[in-house]
Amino acid sequence: MGSRDGFFEKLAQQHWAVADDLIDPMLRERLDLESQHAWKMGLFHEASIGRLHSAALSTGIRGDAICWLTSNDAGSASADFLAWADTIRQDMNQLFYAGLNSDEFHFARYAEGRGYKKHLDQHQRTPHRRISLVLYLNRQWADTDGGELCLYSPDNPQEEIKRILPQPGRLVLFRSDLIHHEVLPCAQPRRSLTGWFRTDRPLI
Length: 204
Hints:
Blueprint: H1 5-14, E1 16-19, H2 25-40, E2 45-46, E3 64-68, H3 77-96, E4 102-110, E5 116-119, E6 129-136, E7 149-152, E8 160-164, E9 171-175, E10 181-183, E11 190-198
Antiparallel strand pairs: 1-9, 2-3, 3-4, 4-11, 5-10, 6-9, 6-11, 7-8, 7-10
Helix pairs in contact: 2-3
């Protein structure tokens, strides 16, 4: 397993970080199997844009279907991931005095040809999402499969600064309030685990 120190240092310096060796490959495989089972059981639903009364479906803007994680089943991949994510949250609180006090995660599945237009994860007037997390679950992914995550400069949302291929087990963290991002259309179903570390206090 990789070291978190350099990963968190990059997150602090550039407001985003990528690593390929921070999560146990067996846990990633279990999460992928769990997400595929949830899909076959019909537990996913088309994701909306906006929030609460303003939420709306718009597959031309956002093309994923989602299934929220719970820790109800002890020993499940979801429960093990949530326990692992809690250690990440505690590390960020210790290093950055971030005040992260909750989280929310879901499985996401983009069908072939779907993507997600450029956006911020933090909603207007609701600054609770502070750090976004993406973990890619597909067992293999070629350059020609597309589905890259495009990150844009926090100083200029029109300037693309990084294009990340959704390789198996690749983990991405970024500031929910600063980093505009986009998911490019994929050439095969694209599976991931996505969510946010939250707080009611501003980051320092």
